[in-house]
Fold:
Amino acid sequence: MGILFTFTATVLLFIIITFLYLTFQTYSGKSIKNPDYPPVDGTVFGQLFYFNRLYDHQTEVARKQKTFRLLAPGQSELYTTDIRNIEHVLKTNFDNYTKGKYNQDIANDLFGNGIFAVDGDKWRQQRKLASFEFSTRVLRDFSCSVFRRNAAKLVRVISEMAIVDQIFDMQDTLMRCTLDSIFKVGFGVELNCLEGSSKEGTEFMKAFDDSNALVYWRYVDPLWKLKRYFNIGSEASLKKNIKIIDAFVTNLIRTKRKLLAEERICDDKEDILSRFLVESRKDPEEMNDKYLRDIILNFMIAGKDSSANTLSWFFYMLCKNPVIQEKVAQEVRDVTRSQDDVVNVEEFTANITDTALEQMHYLHAALTETLRLYPCCSCGKSSENSWTLNSMHYINSLKFMRTTDVIMLVTWFFGLKDGRCAEVDDILPDGYRMKKGDGLYYMAYAMGRMPYIWGEDAEDFRPERWLNNGVFQPESPFKFIAFNVCIFSSFVAYIKCQAIYKVDGCPHAGRSSDMSGQRLRLPADEDSINSPSPVLPLQISR
Structure:
């Protein structure tokens, strides 16, 4: 009895001491009443009360105050929708903001020295190399061909469900299609998740997703280093998953290196891994297998989920706006000159050329408007490559959330996700001060709904706002931050979205059935869309 009492008392004392310590760390030295610093809107812990409507709550606060802060243990977290502040951190004063050692320590086991986990010269070197490779004609042509081919597969799968008037999960279907594309472009490997399965590839992706969740869990697990040392609990699972990941990627790298040594891979090889292998011959010591492993995994996190999630919102918004859906489909028909004489998907995709893509201004505007309202990274810290919330497009009202999303949401509450923090005291363009160690977040979701940025109709889905005399007109990347937050995922999302909807607009999706005039629509029971379910149910209707 005495032992139980002593144990209980010790636990309670530990809890009380921890609470007092966190309270002291949260409120001390924060200049709460000082008007030189942004107004305080509570603590990071208080956002747990807005779990079901976090982004909408942020939007409400941002309407009253463009820049505000939340108090966190040891620092303040600033949130802003002020375009001047965003440009200041991402461009003008970029070198004075880093991801921070704390974030790097947490992410290092999985992402190593990849572009999303490093700063300084390493970041610049990788960005320069990646920007060059992504801009090459060979990679762009290869990517487009992969996306078009998988888009054709997607239409055939949807066509089969349309024949029986079946309700299907659009997000899941798009996830599998995107995974096939990312694997092919990244590794040169056919995964075939959409029509079949690859046991080895599926095991790799499961390990990759689980590792992401376990890494993010470290943010709210004060004992993670101890658990890693003793190899127990979540850290044991993480180590096991990383072993699977490393084995898969290392095998691919070594196999392709062998082919390259035998001169069976030429310099214009198309997939990203092969292109980096060719580049590594210039500096084999620096660009070793570990270096290439980190680059590839960072590429995967950038593009895997973001494309499918953006597409899901795109189709959802078209279903909610049938007039816009018809305008998009009509533009596709007009530009590709596809009428009833087109007999199959393959013939239709042959009409999708670079020239045709450039002429589809309304489709470009509709996709951009989707990203404005439902950005890939709805709230990111000040980083040109924010990656923590790539899987969280559907956080609003808990739409389409998955297990990994919930875990990442928990880490977001504590203000401890990937991003940048001030390395020195600074003054933002709006006049507010930042202390060394404070973090800065830009709120892309809220920004898309601010009247002082987009006008009184900011919350309306209106592609026409991007058109001038029918021609697409881009905005400043610091105003339209949704496209700037992740250069790789946005590249993939734009190309893939265009390819998929162009094919979906085809008058005849396949030889087996006439789908002319058919359109995607939401099922009669739309309540499922607003439930905490990882499903976007759609139907095909005439």
